[in-house]
Design a protein that fits this description.
Blueprint (H helix, E strand, L loop, with lengths): L6 H5 L4 H4 L1 H4 L20 H15 L11 H8 L3 H13 L3 E4 L3 E4 L16 H25 L2 H17 L3 H18 L3 H21 L8 H19 L3 H22 L4
Antiparallel strand pairs: 1-2
Amino acid sequence: MGFSPKLSDVLYPRWYDQIDCIAQQQDSKPVNVKNSPAGTDSGPLSDRVYARIVDALLRGEFTTGGKLPTEGELVARFGVSRATVREALARLRSDGVIESRRGSGSHVIRAPHPPVATTTLIKSLADIDRYYAFRSCVESGAAAAAAEFRSAEDLAAIRAAYDALAFSHNIGPAGIELDVRFHLALARSSHNAFFVSTIETSVAPIRQFMELAGSYGDGQDGSTEAAVNAEHLAIVVAVERQDAVQAAEAARQHVLNARRRIFEGTRLV
């Protein structure tokens, strides 16, 4: 009798069932910023409201070209004064994220930039191992969520990114850039801004540095190219079938193989 593991068994066997992150990403609720637990918010109330609105924009709750809730609705949502809401909206206008139209409220004119993360430096072989463990968790989760939540448009973007990468033969800086675009297409298909911002600010830059310095610097032979393409295709097929478990496993195997290729392609001089 065959055994089909749960997504929790693939990613986080001990605590994933308690977290259930994929389900919870669809279940966010308004938060009274005055009553947020200690440590989760700091600074003036207007900064907290600003951060909450930015988070909602990054999650896609409010879309470019659409309207924000009225001042009164934001007051009720965050449990703050109208003056505090106006300060937060003024900061969003200053950032060029929204514009106010007389008699029509605040309209979103562009998405905000994700918070900038501090890059962790790679200083040792042990750090490389830690990096790939981190990457495995992030990219497996992103692939699983992409399989769960992707739209037809998302799938088309993933396939286009895969085709461009395969056509490039995965060689040199151009191939690395296309590889990053492929993994970002997966992350965006998860409809989870945290996957997107993590891969944009932490995973992609470090991977580019490491692979430029390692085996990708000398190009790939035919067997390596075929293996990489097959690994990427396995992820695409699982996402297309909306098989979250298989998508997570395919992404995990891809990251493990990428780690192996880095070590096998690094020269000790």
